[in-house]
Amino acid sequence: MKSSILAGVFATGAVAQSGPWGQCGGNGFQGSTSCVSGYQCVYQNDWYSQCLPGTAAASTTLKTSTTAKPSATSSSAPATSSSPSSGNGKFKWFGVNQSGGEFGEGNYPGTWGKHFIFPSSSAIQTLINDGYNIFRVGFSMERLVPNQLTSSFDDGYLRNLTETVNFITNAGAYAVLDPHNYGRYYGNIITDTNAFTSFWTKVGKQFAANSRVVFDTNNEYNTMDQTLVLNLNQAAINGIRAAGATSQYIFVEGNQWSGAWSWNTTNTNMAALTDPQNKLVYEMHQYLDADSSGTNAACVSAEIGVQRVVGATSWLRANGKVGVLGEFAGGANSVCQSAVTNLLEHLKANSDVWTGALWWAGGPWWADYMFSFEPPSGTGYVNYNSLLKKYVA
């Protein structure tokens, strides 16, 4: 979840033509239905049409339909990368983020049980029993390698992190290592790609023998130079593979909080990332409130999730990539429940490019947090577990 809110991100207004990858139609849409030269307005679903590269006339007659089900596909060529998803309407991964190790931001190294805590193994076991098979474990880079990125591990913090990861993977699930740092270290934007490579080489060596570990390069890069974001991701990939960690997937994240809603306009250079093992998965996040920040329990509409990710779906397919929705959630109300269902149905219908999704979030310190997925009484768990269990792998 992003730590600050973008203002006016979804402001709309009449324009002469929609730009590349922009929205150009859909139920309730009031903007331009024509695209700039070189792009055509392509129907995606009843709520969203998009300007995609093409040689057709700039303006395209849009489909209309009374169908309520948001199934969306693209006419673009299918993905050509080595994909962990078969495109058969099933997810490889479906799970829950686990928070606690990254809590207490600014209190470094902090005190176990006061500033931070790691997830509950019993809660994770309950979720595994429910069918969830992937858990993204948040941690703090400042606690794992104190003082500078090239430092040695803090043995105590590493032991706690490793115990959580091993519990998950020994139970047959996947554990995503999530440095929840927003592209920063001690609050400063990371600019030293060599040091970043060094960090990931150390982490890669530590977990190289565990094939059920997934490496997430960093949580929600934001307000950073776009080329730097690309280079940091590549530096992480290089370090992980150089460490001998060759069997694991790597989740790469983008700028602007890795938002799916803006991926195809913000993170286009991310298509240039390379991995000798061809096991990259593009991790995007998507919330359903007014500014996509995930700070409000209200969802814009039942269709908003589909509207916000359909451009990313097209980007993945057009570039031969696969993605995962690393964070999503909705409030405990019927509009959000419909929006979450429609979003997941869209991802499932496009499972050739979407490998799965993870709810935000579980963890023992969420108390009455509106999205808490901590069994047995977390608000999200009580209101969404039955719905989400329909999508478990």
UniProtKB/TrEMBL annotation:
Gene3D superfamilies: Glycosidases. Residues 67-86 have a biased composition (Low complexity). The keyword Signal applies. Keywords: Carbohydrate metabolism, Glycosidase, Hydrolase, Polysaccharide degradation, Signal. Residues 67-87 are annotated as: Disordered. It comes from Parachaetomium inaequale. Pfam families: CBM_1, Cellulase. It is an enzyme of class 3 (hydrolase). This is cellulase. InterPro entries: CBD (IPR000254), CBD_sf (IPR035971), GH (IPR017853), Glyco_hydro_5 (IPR001547). Residues 1-16 form the signal peptide. GO terms for biological process: glucan catabolic process. Belongs to the glycosyl hydrolase 5 (cellulase A) family. GO terms for cellular component: extracellular region. GO terms for molecular function: cellulase activity; cellulose binding. Residues 16-52 form the CBM1 domain.
